[in-house]
């Protein structure tokens, strides 16, 4: 008998062996053990030996606030705002509101996710029965103390580690800890661990580890360390900010120095108060170089995507997680809870060659065998398929069976591994583990054993149905003297399987089409897992390659090479799941991992993106970045689609923002070198940036976009931004140099002339901003062209609104300013077109030279 066939016989969740204790809350077997006294229990609780665990389902409020407030971006903007406020020019400090908005969006969104997760993680306030002073008393789970004698019954989740003292057929589901979906029968002296669930039977166990010393708590200690999601988009923006930090500080000092020199030196500036204008001018350069709207828009876009996903029962705990799955190329799936729902499904009954019974009679016998007072998982599956009128498979007629005439019954138990029913006419039907029934029969049936092994290798859970004809008196006494009849004849095989989620196959097909390599990683038998992977077409038309994780190499590089050719891994231990993720990382893969058990927590934490099911253990949900609240695997394509929309659109708008960074840096550098007055004010850049970058970018960022992610976000953004940035800087600097000479303005002595120069340069800056916007929004057919036209018109209309004109220090061209402005705009257009041709050509030459080296 193979291990697969053996596990098939054990797979059903049996009822307790006789004699079974009462299932009522008050009735327990009489035992000689008295347990701790009330005084001993109170003393141990006072010594800290109670079953209390300080659990955290997610980041604390303080951590969320700190992570969103103390950022590099906020620091730069805050320092610039303080400098402007010191000068008393509060209108030029309105850019500082972006700190409040950006920080608020991040905090509110993550707090909302935290509240939802905390609600998911609240444990049911279960009460347990312990034996103290010879009495059975009910206590809360946190009132259990070390040394208590704990009663466990079917349906209870083990609250603390314990050793079995007495057992009445106790079977545990340890899948949350081991990843194996089959139940495990426990005997006296066996160790049981917190987090497992009693499926059937009863036991009295002595608690030997409580609270944080329990196995589940120990396993998740490493998982409690918070790990920030690494976002390619955020990394690219942070790279820009870091570069700007090194540039901004010395450039700001130089700008202040150059502007002080421009107004007549420090003595004159301090005496006349013109130092304030110098500081404001310097900040104009600094603020222009910082893509503050990009950071704000990124947070807002992530938040909106997270809210949309929340409406689809997908909880995003970290905003950057929306983007990460768009880059994933490896998805490691846990079998139980992801592909299967943990339940058992009746597939069909297969009549054996030479069976003396017809299929309808065998189906009726199968129904009666399953129709116990407390049927196990397999029995419930049979009853659901045959009794509800559903087509149970090849053998089910879907007519709906009713209970037959049964004169005696032997219920299924883990001790026997079989059950039986007797008819009044002397017919006895047996059902149970094939190896148990076959070993008790006189006749040797290797053909039946071969069939059982073949079905087990295909992932089925197999039970054997046999028939014996005895006297009526013998049949009636079956319950009094239960035993297998050696003359029974094998009649049929009952084939069951793990119930596969209806959405598993189409979801896997979607990932396959998108080029994401999916692997199934499970603690179950690799043959069984491989069979399930074939049923859901994990690898399409090709059969999946399955492997036993016990044969995996320990060396990370060797493990990575092996994994490239493996689709299914069975018998995987928790540490191996983490090692598998690490190995895939060495090959440059972006890895997502799904899971629901405590055994998955470390791997989820190690992965680039951890995805937990809504019914997962608290520790698992705590380390996951995404929680599928209703545990539906089919939500993952929605997450990918939102991630791709964020990535593709944010790359578009990042190019728009970086243009401003490029031209602000070039203009600031030119001002330092030439010591001319800064050509515009901070409020000018606020007005122009809002109309040509901020508001259009918001609309473009929310547009539908399903483009697949391509590496090289920062390189593409820089490649796009350089021509527009250089063209804008050249246009403004040429105007700042030529207009005073052409128009006869004395910008060093006349405030009015300087105001005219700055207003004209602001108009040129706005025109160049519209050119760049049109380039980013391409193609301009349809709503994109209307978008560009509307914001161009809004900028012009704003010039003629008195309040807007005064607040932003704008000037409507008039008199001699009109021809000068038009000439400057025409020159700007020419410079723009020239730079679009020259700058990319220079960029390509530099790239070739770098590659050659």
TrEMBL record:
GO molecular function, one term: ATP hydrolysis activity
GO CC list: plasma membrane
Domain P-type ATPase A stretches: 125-219
Name of the protein: E1-E2 ATPase
Top-level division of the source organism's lineage: Bacteria
Keywords, ordered alphabetically: Membrane, Translocase, Transmembrane, Transmembrane helix
Region (Disordered): 1-29
Membrane topology: Multi-pass membrane protein
Principal subcellular localization: membrane
Key word NAD present: no
Transmembrane segments: 64-87, 93-111, 240-260, 280-304, 653-673, 685-705, 717-737, 757-774, 786-804, 816-839
Organism of this sequence: Bifidobacterium moraviense
Compartments, record wording: Cell membrane
Record's keyword annotation contains Translocase: yes
């Amino acid at each position: 008998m193979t291990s697969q066939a053996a596990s098939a016989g054990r797979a059903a969740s049996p009822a307790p062996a006789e004699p079974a204790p009462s299932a009522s809350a008050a009735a327990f077997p009489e035992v000689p053990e008295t347990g701790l006294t009330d005084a001993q229990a109170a003393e141990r609780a006072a010594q800290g030996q109670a079953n209390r665990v300080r659990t955290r389902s997610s980041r604390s409020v303080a951590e969320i606030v700190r992570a969103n407030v103390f950022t590099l971006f906020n620091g730069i903007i805050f320092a610039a705002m303080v400098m402007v406020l010191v000068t008393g020019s509060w209108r030029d400090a309105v850019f500082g509101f972006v700190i409040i908005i950006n920080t608020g969006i991040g905090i509110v969104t993550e707090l909302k996710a935290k509240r939802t997760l905390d609600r998911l993680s609240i444990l049911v306030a279960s009460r347990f029965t312990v034996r103290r002073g010879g009495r059975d008393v009910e206590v809360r789970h946190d009132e259990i103390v070390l040394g208590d004698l704990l009663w466990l019954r079917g349906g209870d989740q083990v609250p603390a580690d314990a050793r079995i003292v007495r057992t009445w057929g106790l079977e545990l589901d340890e899948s949350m800890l081991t990843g194996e979906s089959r139940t495990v029968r426990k005997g006296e002296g066996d160790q049981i661990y917190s987090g497992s669930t009693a499926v059937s039977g009863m036991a009295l166990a002595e608690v030997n580890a409580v609270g944080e010393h329990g196995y589940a708590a120990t396993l998740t200690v490493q998982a409690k360390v918070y790990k920030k999601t690494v976002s390619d988009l955020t990394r690219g923006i942070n790279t820009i900010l870091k570069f700007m930090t090194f540039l901004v500080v010395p450039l700001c000092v130089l700008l202040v120095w150059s502007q002080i020199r421009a107004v007549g030196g420090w003595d004159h500036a301090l005496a006349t108060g013109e130092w304030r204008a110098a500081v404001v001018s310097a900040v104009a350069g600094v603020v222009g170089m910082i893509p503050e709207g990009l950071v704000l828009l990124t947070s807002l876009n992530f938040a909106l995507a997270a809210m949309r996903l929340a409406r689809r029962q997908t909880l995003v705990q970290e905003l950057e997680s929306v983007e990460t799955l768009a880059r994933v190329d490896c998805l490691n799936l846990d079998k139980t809870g992801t592909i299967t729902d943990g339940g058992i499904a009746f597939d069909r009954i297969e009549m054996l060659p030479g069976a003396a019974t017809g299929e309808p009679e065998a189906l009726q016998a199968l129904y009666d065998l399953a129709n116990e007072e407390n049927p196990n998982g397999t029995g419930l599956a049979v009853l659901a398929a045959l009794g509800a009128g559903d087509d149970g498979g090849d053998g089910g007629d879907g007519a709906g069976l009713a209970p037959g005439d049964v004169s005696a019954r032997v219920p299924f138990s883990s001790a026997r591994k079989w059950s039986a029913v007797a008819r009044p006419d002397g017919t006895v039907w047996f059902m149970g583990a094939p190896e148990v029934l076959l070993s008790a029969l006189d006749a040797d049936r290797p053909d039946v054993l071969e069939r059982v092994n073949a079905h087990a290798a295909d992932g089925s859970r197999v039970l054997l149905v046999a028939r014996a004809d005895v006297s009526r008196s013998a049949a009636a006494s079956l319950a009094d003297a239960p035993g297998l009849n050696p003359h029974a004849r094998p009649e049929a095989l009952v084939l069951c399987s793990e119930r596969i989620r209806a959405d598993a196959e189409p979801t896997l097909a979607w990932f396959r089409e998108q080029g994401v390599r999916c692997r199934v990683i499970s603690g179950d038998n690799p043959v069984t897992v491989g069979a399930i992977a074939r049923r859901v077409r994990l690898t399409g038309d090709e059969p999946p390659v399955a492997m036993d994780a016990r044969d995996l190499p320990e060396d990370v590089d060797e493990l990575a090479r092996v994994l490239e050719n493996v689709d299914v891994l069975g018998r995987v231990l928790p540490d191996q799941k983490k090692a598998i993720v690490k190995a895939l990382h060495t090959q440059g893969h972006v890895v997502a991992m799904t899971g629901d058990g405590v055994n998955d927590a470390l791997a989820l934490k190690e992965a680039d993106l951890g995805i937990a099911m809504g019914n997962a253990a608290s520790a698992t949900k705590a380390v996951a970045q995404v929680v599928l609240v209703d545990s539906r695997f089919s939500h993952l394509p929605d997450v990918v689609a939102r991630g791709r929309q964020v990535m593709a659109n944010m790359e578009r708008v990042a190019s728009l923002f970086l243009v401003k960074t490029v031209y602000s840096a070039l203009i600031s550098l030119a001002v330092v070198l030439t010591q001319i007055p800064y050509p515009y004010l901070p409020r000018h850049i606020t007005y122009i940036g809002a109309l040509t970058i901020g508001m259009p970018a918001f609309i473009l960022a929310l547009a539908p976009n399903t483009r697949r992610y391509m590496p090289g976000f920062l390189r593409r953004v820089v490649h796009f931004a350089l021509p527009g940035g250089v063209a804008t800087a050249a246009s403004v600097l040429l105007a700042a140099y030529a207009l005073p000479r052409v128009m006869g303005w004395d910008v060093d002595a006349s405030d009015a002339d300087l105001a005219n120069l700055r207003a004209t340069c602001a108009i040129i800056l706005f025109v160049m901003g519209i050119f760049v916007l049109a380039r980013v929004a391409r193609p301009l057919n349809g709503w994109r062209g209307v978008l560009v036209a509307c914001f161009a018109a809004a900028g012009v209309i704003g010039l003629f609104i008195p309040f807007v004109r005064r607040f932003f220090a704008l000037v409507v061209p008039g008199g001699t300013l009109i021809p000068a402005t038009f000439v400057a705009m025409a020159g700007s257009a020419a410079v723009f077109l020239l730079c679009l041709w020259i700058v990319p050509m220079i960029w390509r030459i530099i790239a070739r030279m770098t590659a050659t080296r």
